[in-house]
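pls read this stuff:
=====
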Amino acid sequence: MKTLILTIASIAAITLCTTSIFAAAPVKANMESMIEGQMIYEVPLNSHVKKGQLVEEVDPAKYAGAVKSDIAVINYDKLLYNADSKLYKTHSVSLITLLGAKKNYESALEKMTEDNATLRHCKVYAPFAGTATDITVYPGSGLGDGSLIMTIVKNKATA
């Protein structure tokens, strides 16, 4: 019975020791770019950020242009599909032509969904309140996919 009590006491001591080790380590988030482009905004070094605050933005012009182009393609493919639907009813076009027009229209819709998702990645927000540290890329710099931009360290008061 004494051995069992010592084992539980030693487990509690080990747990307490490891908890204090992990509690001392600061919580931090490495902010990375999910897309390529030129950075146009970033919070200053050592500035306090709030949870959900915009901390960096990549120039969205390239991606916004892709979405506008997608809208034009969708409108065109929709017109072709509607025209082929009417012509198919009169047996003026084949089923293969109609299905091809439908496939092109659906592909254009999917591409627009993807481009809208990419456009949303132009802005990066703070995951928690903290301090912006270790800034490696500044406004005007080019970014690659997955480039480290900055580190946000959670403040002890907000932990």
